[in-house]
Design goal:
The chain is mainly alpha-helical. It is built from seven helices and five strands, in the order βαβαβαββαααα. The strands form two sheets. The chain has a three-stranded parallel beta sheet with strand order 1-2-3. A two-stranded antiparallel ribbon has the order 4-5. About 30% of the residues are buried.
């Protein structure tokens, strides 16, 4: 991996909103709760982390969702309207949801990292969230993400 940071996969006996959020904010690639995953899930999580994608066990995802609130104006029958964002912002969110960082998103979309950060600021404002984790959870759990 050269001069890049090595991926970190957290495995803990419990998961609270604060534990999972802080782990992800400090660069963890994933968070698994003991007794909440199989050996195949662990293998998938390690593979995802190596590819710089995020992996959460069901209990970790539930912990994040318990204390994360989303604006209702963008929700319709449990689905986030992709129309809340411009097509380019949708592209950024799709890549962010797959675990790409700003630099990687920029390379994929032929943008500078600064431009990606500007898009992210606008996306957070439009979605009514204040963090990458909240934006990705809203995007993925609402079904808005389109896998490339």
């Amino acid at each position: 991996m050269g001069d890049q940071e090595r991926p970190v996969l957290i495995v803990c006996p419990t998961a609270t909103h604060e534990q999972v959020t802080k782990s992800l904010m400090h660069g963890a690639s994933g968070y698994l709760v003991e007794n909440d995953f199989t050996s195949n899930t662990l293998l998938n999580a390690v593979t995802s982390a190596a590819q710089r994608h995020t992996h959460l066990s069901p209990a970790a995802r539930a912990a994040l969702m318990r204390e994360t609130t989303f604006p209702t104006e963008f929700m319709h029958a449990g689905k986030l309207t992709r129309d809340a964002l411009t097509p380019r912002e949708q592209d950024v969110m799709d890549l962010l949801s797959l675990g790409f960082n700003a630099s990687e998103i920029g390379k994929q979309l032929f943008l500078t990292s600064k431009t990606v950060y500007n898009y992210l600021a606008n996306i957070y404002r439009k979605l009514g969230v204040s963090s990458r984790v909240s934006a990705v959870l809203l995007w993925v759990n609402s079904g808005a993400v389109k896998v490339r």
